[in-house]
């Protein structure tokens, strides 16, 4: 098996645990035996459990000796809740290691150097872009900034409306887009809305579909009580009500709770506040081929009094999602 093919398997393994490992990264690992054949695969366990490399080595057993490890993140060199993965790789007799991205955490970094010093051949950067913009996107941001990665997700008509003039909004997007959103919800730590969205739409804010094993934290932002019987208060998922309008305090609270990956789903006032504060890292827009002509728009006041103050994003992907257009864009950071 070629290293690139093995890294693709490692990425797929990491996707299976996305949302279940925070604050640890969702890492995938593959072990090839001395002949280059697949010997083991693994992914990060929930906090306190083995890292991806340990699980892959356990799966490979004695076939790991003289073999190759392919990992989406540089193997760690520090002793946290678990021993260093570098030690396990050396003890297993691994002779080559490929990894996609370096660990930005100074406490955990240095694994590549230790491996090389021990005589292991190290190849960094394999499929780095695919990993950095995929399963490790949110965690890398969290490790570098100390705050959660926030994706603002919304669905709108082609003329920018998120609901009709009478307030009806189900369903602007098509069935394929809605299924895509539920799949995304399965792999995040938290879904966030404003209290106004709860009052207007009474959303459930859960991941639905076959095989859902865990639910993200539901976060409601805003002063005032939630209405009795609101669906976000049921027992289908945990809920956190933050009685504040200060987005900076919201971010701090979520970081203190080890929340790494957040999807901001509404409404326009909350989205505007986060955008104005520079706290929206990615936008995911589902554009439906309909026109409404009137009704609420996706975004409220975002602190843009003139065009030169516009928030700039770079489109990274445009795909079809059923009959809708799915646009993913990331914030352009000032240099």
CATH fold group of the largest domain: Dihydrofolate Reductase, subunit A
The biggest sheet, with number of strands, parallel, antiparallel or mixed sense and barrel status, is: 8 strands, mixed
The number of domains is 2
Task: Provide the CATH superfamily of the largest domain.
Answer: Dihydrofolate Reductase, subunit A
From the alpha carbons, calculate the radius of gyration and give it in angstroms: 22 Å
N-to-C SSE series?
HEEHEHEHEHHEHEHEEHEHEEE
Uncertain regions spanning at least 5 consecutive residues: none
Question: What would you call the shape?
Answer: elongated
Percent helix: 25-40%
Number of helices: 10
Structure summary, number of beta strands: 13
Derived from helix and strand composition plus strand pairing, the structural class reads alpha/beta
Taking strands numbered 1, 2, ... along the chain, how are they ordered across the largest sheet? Answer: 9-8-7-10-6-11-13-12
Give the helices and strands, then pairings.
Elements (H helix, E strand, L loop, with lengths): L2 H13 L12 E5 L5 E6 L8 H9 L7 E6 L11 H7 L4 E6 L9 H7 L3 E4 L3 H5 L4 H9 L3 E9 L17 H11 L4 E5 H7 L15 E5 L17 E4 L4 H10 L4 E6 L1 H9 L5 E7 L24 E9 L2 E8 L4
Parallel strand pairs: 3-4, 4-5, 6-10, 6-11, 7-8, 7-10, 8-9
Antiparallel strand pairs: 1-2, 1-3, 11-13, 12-13
């Amino acid at each position: 098996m070629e290293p690139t093919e093995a890294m693709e398997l490692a990425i797929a393994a990491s996707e299976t645990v996305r949302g279940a490992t925070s604050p640890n990264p969702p890492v995938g690992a593959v072990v090839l035996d001395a002949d280059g054949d697949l010997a083991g695969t693994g992914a990060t366990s929930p906090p306190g459990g083995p890292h991806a490399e340990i699980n892959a080595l356990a799966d490979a057993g004695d076939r790991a000796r003289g073999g190759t490890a392919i990992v989406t993140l540089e193997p760690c060199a520090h002793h946290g809740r678990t021993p260093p993965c570098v030690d396990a790789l050396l003890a297993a007799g691994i002779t080559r290691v490929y990894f996609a991205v370096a660990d930005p955490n100074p406490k955990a970094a240095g694994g590549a150097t230790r491996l090389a010093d021990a005589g292991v051949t190290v190849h960094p950067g394999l499929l780095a872009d695919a990993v950095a913009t995929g399963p490790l996107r949110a965690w890398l941001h969290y490790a570098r900034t100390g705050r959660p990665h926030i994706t603002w997700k919304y669905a709108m008509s082609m003329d920018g409306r998120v609901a009709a003039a009478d307030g009806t909004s189900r369903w602007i997007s098509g069935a394929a887009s809605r299924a895509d959103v539920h799949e995304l919800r399965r792999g995040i730590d938290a879904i966030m809305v404003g209290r106004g969205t709860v009052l207007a739409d009474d959303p459930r804010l859960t991941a639905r579909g076959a095989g859902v094993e865990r639910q993200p934290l539901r976060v409601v932002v805003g002063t005032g009580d939630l209405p009795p019987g609101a669906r976000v208060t049921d027992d289908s998922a945990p809920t956190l009500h933050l009685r504040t309008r200060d987005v900076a305090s919201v971010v701090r609270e979520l970081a203190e709770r080890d929340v790494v990956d957040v999807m901001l789903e509404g409404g326009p006032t909350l989205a505007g506040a986060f955008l104005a504060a520079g706290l929206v890292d990615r936008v995911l827009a589902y554009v439906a081929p309909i026109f409404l002509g009137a009704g609420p728009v996706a975004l409220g006041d975002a602190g843009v009094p003139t065009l030169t103050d516009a928030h700039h994003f770079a489109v990274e992907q445009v795909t079809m999602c059923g009959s809708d257009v799915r646009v993913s864009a990331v914030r352009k950071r000032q240099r």
